[in-house]
C-alpha cells in the first residue's frame, strides 16, 4: 500500500465503518446508501474516455478514494459541456460533499457551481482551471507553463538554435481554445521560441502569425482532436510545402495532436530516421510512446497522473477532516474572479532513451505493451 493510501485509509477508517460498493455506468453511477449517512460521496467529473490519460486519471483517483473508504461517482462526459453539467447536477442531487472536476469548457460551469456552493459542497479543479466563478476552492495540476517551456527548450537544443543554427521550418499548434491549460502550454513554449522566430532562425511557412503568446487561438485545435490536428497538418503541408520544401519541426502541445500530425507526416511521405521532423508531445500515452520508439515523435512531456490523483485524494481528505489543504502556488492561477490556491506537480521530459527508465520502470506503461 502506498504512503498516500495508508494515510488516507487510516483517516477514513477512523471516521467510517461502512465500506462501499460503487457501481459504474456511463452516465450515472453512485452508490445506493444515502449520502448524508456513512462515508462522504465524492463526485469525479472527467471530460472524455476518448483519451487514454483521462481513463487512467479517473480510475486511479476512484480506486484511491474507494480504498480509503469514500463513496465515489465517476462520470465521463464525452467532451460535451451540457453532459458534464448534467452529471455535476446529479452529483449535487446525490448529496456529494466534494466535487473533483476536470472541466471541458473552463468557463461554462459557473451556474452549476453556484448550486454546489449553496449546498456547501467543496470544489477541486482537477488538471484544468475552472474560470469565471468564485466557487472553486482548490486547483491541482502539473505546472502547465513549464510543460510548454520544456517543449520549447527541447526544440532549441535539438536544432542547435542556441548555437546559431538555422533557419528551420516550424509549424506551431496549440490545444483546445476552451481549455485554460492550452494558453499556458503555448505561452511556455512561445516564450522560449519567439526570439528565434523574430531573428528568422525559425520560419513559419504556413504564415501563421503569432506575434505574441496571446495569439495561440489562431493555431488551436478544438477538442484536442487527433483528426483535427491531422486535417490541419494536411492543409499546411499541401498548401505551403510544395516544390520540395520540408518541415523541420512541429510544436505539438500534447500527444493526441501529435498522433494526428504524425499520421499526416506519414501520408505525406516523411520517413523516420531520414526527414521526419522534430515533433513534441505531452502525456506519455501508449500510442505516442510507441511512436517515440519508432522515431515518429521526438519527445513527450510526461505527467505522472498517478501523483496528481494522490495529491487530489490528500486534498479530499484534508477537506473532509477540516485540516489545512496543502497548496504550493497562490499566485499563478487567477480564474478571472479570484486566485485559486493550487498544487503544482513537476512535468518530466521523456525521449526514446529514457522510455524504459522513466515510463516502464515506474510502472506507468508496461514493457510488454511497448514490445520492449
Ligand atoms: C491536459 C493534457 C491533455 C489535454 C487533452 C489538457 O487539459 O492537461 O494533459 O493532453 O488536456 O485532453
Structure, explained:
The structure is a single chain. Helices cover 39% and strands 13% of the residues. By secondary structure, it is α/β, with parallel strands linked by helices. The strands form three sheets. It has a six-stranded parallel β-sheet, sandwiched between helices. Strands 7-6-8-9 form a four-stranded parallel β-sheet, sandwiched between helices. The longest helix is centred in the middle third of the chain and has 19 residues, at 180-198. It is globular and about 70 Å long. Residues 9-35 have low confidence and may be disordered. The structure holds beta-D-glucopyranose (BGC).
N-to-C SSE string, H for helix and E for strand: HEHEHEHEEHEHEHEHEHEHEEH
> What fraction, in percent, of the residue positions are helical?
25-40%
Catalogue the unreliable spans. Answer: 9-35
Please state the CA-atom Rg, rounded to the nearest Å.
Answer: 21 Å
* Number of strand segments: 12
Silhouette: globular
Bound molecules: beta-D-glucopyranose
The averaged pLDDT comes out at 91
User: Which strand order spans the largest sheet, edge to edge or round the barrel?
Assistant: 2-1-3-4-5-11
Estimate what percentage of residues fall within beta strands: 5-15%
Distance between the termini: 27 Å
Q: Structural class given helices, strands, pairing?
A: alpha/beta
Give the biggest sheet.
Answer: 6 strands, parallel
- Number of helical elements: 11
